[in-house]
Structure formats: structure tokens, C-alpha cells
UniProtKB/TrEMBL annotation:
Belongs to the LysR transcriptional regulatory family. It holds the Pfam family HTH_1. GO terms for cellular component: cytosol. It comes from the Bacteria. This is LysR family transcriptional regulator. GO terms for molecular function: DNA binding; DNA-binding transcription factor activity.
């Protein structure tokens, strides 16, 4: 039997309930709890797991006194199971909405720097042309969006690569870049300073930064390193725009965020930009989609709108 025929035979033997069992084992790591969730006996759940392992001819979970733990190959199947189940669930939801007369659903994830301008304008235009299309917009950091995209929980991400190897998993089309600013509250002791030393800011003031896993934070840390400076010791990590703005308004913290997010608050004088340069080496953001996967018609339509707006 050829390799491709063998792979097809494996997939033909894999059923929906098998995928559900694998996903639930990842969640609970306990066969008794999984059996209860599937409304079956524990011996039946154990037999089903053995069937799956026999199908793939490998051990997928190690049994321990504390439950089960996935093997390296088990982790691969877990990722596939979650992705397949998410796609099935979203397909069922989309079919239901079509039956109700809707024009389908589009789930879009965007980094905070792209959301206020490019993405907001694109979504408004998309809804103008297709008012019955349900659009869900999730605002996250690039690392979170890449994970959601890999899990089939979103259709498209406006973000940037997080690791060097992600070009093997996703297609990327550049749209633009973010201008990063360091800001403080309007009555901060540094608010009216004409010049500042980055070293002094790092040593003397608290900072409000994106999570360490985000590309913007990693670039910032690299800039500290290249300048021969230590990271700030007093840090609040915050991935929420609203929470970060509340923190900077009520503290002496230095907040680093994209200019597009901060613009309205700067214009009304709630915060002030500091005279330092940050995030200079941040790579462009753009359209991220799963590699070797046909794009749905709404996704293709949105991509065309994004290109038009970015090109203006």
C-alpha cells in the first residue's frame, strides 16, 4: 500500500467521536471524566482510546497514577482534533445561519495597532456591501492570534509572524506597520519634559507593557539589549487596551502602545507622548491565513478590501 493510500485509510477509520475523545483527554487528562462527558463507561472510553492507538500504530497517551499524559505523537493528534472539531462546529453554525437567511459568518482577529484604522474601516466597508454577513472581530496580540488561527477558531488574522518557522504553517501578505509610542498620564512629572534618557526611564519609573510573548514586547526587549540597558524592574504586563489605558491614567507608569490606539486619547489631552523612540525595528503586520487551505469567499472579499485600504 502506498503512503498516500495508507494515510487515507487511517483518516477513513477516524470518527467524530474519536476526535472528541482526544480533545476531551487533552482538556481533562482523566479517562473517568472524559467517559462521563461522553456519556459512556470508563472501560468503553478506554477501548475507544485503544482503537485509536491501534489505528495509528503508536502510543498516544501514557497512563499514570495521576491520569493520562499525551506523548509527542499524541500532541500532534490533539492539535488536529481541536482544529477539526472547531471547523466542524463553525461549519454547522454557518449552515444554520444560512438557513435563517444570513450571509454566513466571518471571524477576524487583529492586533491592536491594526484594529482602529485599517481593520475597522475594512469591516465597516464589508458590512456596507454585505449587511447580513455576521462579522466577529477579536483583538489580541500576534502570538494569541496565531494560536487561534492554527486551531481554526478564526478565519483570518491581521498580525505578524511570531517565530521564524511559522512561514511553513501560514501565508503572509504585508499590509503596513505600527508606530509605537511611550506615553504617560497628562499630569505625570515627565509629561512636559523636552528630552529624556531611556536609561533613566527604565531605572526610575514603572512600565506598562504587552505580554512578553507578543512581537512588540520582544522587539522592545531587543532594543533595550542593543542599548546595553536592563529591562525595567517594575512592570505590569497587560494585553488589554482598555485596562492598560486605565492603568496609565491612574499611575506613574510609562505605557508603550501603537499610536493608532492612543491617538484619540492624545488629542483630548488625557495622555502625553514622551520624547523617546521605541519599537523602531518592529516588523510589518499583514494578512495571515492557513497555508494550503482554500479561502472562503467572505475571506477573499475582506482581503481585497484590506488591500485597497492599505494601498491608499
Amino acid at each position: 500500500m502506498s503512503e498516500s493510500m495508507r494515510h487515507a485509510a487511517l483518516l477513513n477509520r477516524l470518527r467524530y467521536k474519536h476526535l472528541l475523545l482526544i480533545a476531551l483527554l487533552d482538556e481533562h487528562r482523566n479517562l473517568h471524566q472524559v467517559a462521563r462527558a461522553l456519556n459512556m463507561s470508563q472501560p468503553a472510553a478506554t477501548r475507544m482510546l485503544r482503537e485509536i492507538e491501534a489505528t495509528f500504530e503508536c502510543r498516544l497517551f501514557e497512563r499514570t497514577t495521576r491520569g493520562v499524559q499525551p506523548t509527542r505523537l499524541g500532541e500532534v493528534l490533539i492539535e488536529f482534533a481541536h482544529g477539526a472539531l472547531n471547523r466542524l462546529n463553525r461549519c454547522a453554525e454557518s449552515l444554520h445561519r444560512h438557513q435563517l437567511g444570513d450571509q454566513g459568518q466571518l471571524v477576524l482577529g487583529a492586533i491592536m495597532g491594526a484594529a482602529p484604522d485599517l481593520v475597522a474601516e475594512a469591516v465597516i466597508e464589508m458590512k456596507r456591501q454585505r449587511p447580513l454577513l455576521q462579522v466577529r472581530l477579536l483583538g489580541e496580540t500576534s502570538d494569541q492570534l496565531v494560536e487561534l488561527l492554527a486551531q481554526n477558531k478564526i478565519d483570518i488574522a491581521i498580525a505578524r509572524y511570531v517565530t521564524a518557522l511559522q512561514h511553513n504553517q501560514f501565508d503572509f501578505e504585508s499590509l503596513g506597520n505600527e508606530t509605537m509610542l511611550a506615553v504617560v498620564r497628562h499630569d505625570h512629572p515627565l509629561a512636559d519634559e523636552a528630552s529624556l534618557s531611556l536609561a533613566t526611564l527604565l531605572e526610575a519609573w514603572p512600565w506598562i507593557l504587552q505580554p512578553l510573548e507578543s512581537p512588540a514586547r520582544q522587539v522592545l526587549e531587543k532594543e533595550f539589549e542593543l542599548a546595553g540597558l536592563m529591562s525595567p524592574r517594575d512592570i505590569i504586563e497587560c494585553g488589554s487596551i482598555f485596562a492598560a489605558l486605565q492603568l496609565v491614567k491612574r499611575s506613574d507608569g510609562v505605557l508603550v502602545m501603537p499610536e493608532s490606539v492612543l491617538r484619540d486619547y492624545l488629542e483630548i489631552g488625557l495622555i502625553k507622548a514622551l520624547p523617546i523612540s521605541v519599537g523602531k525595528t518592529l516588523s510589518p503586520f499583514g494578512i495571515l491565513t492557513r497555508k494550503n487551505e482554500a479561502l472562503s469567499e467572505p475571506v477573499r472579499h475582506l482581503c481585497a478590501i484590506l488591500r485597497d485600504i492599505a494601498g491608499d
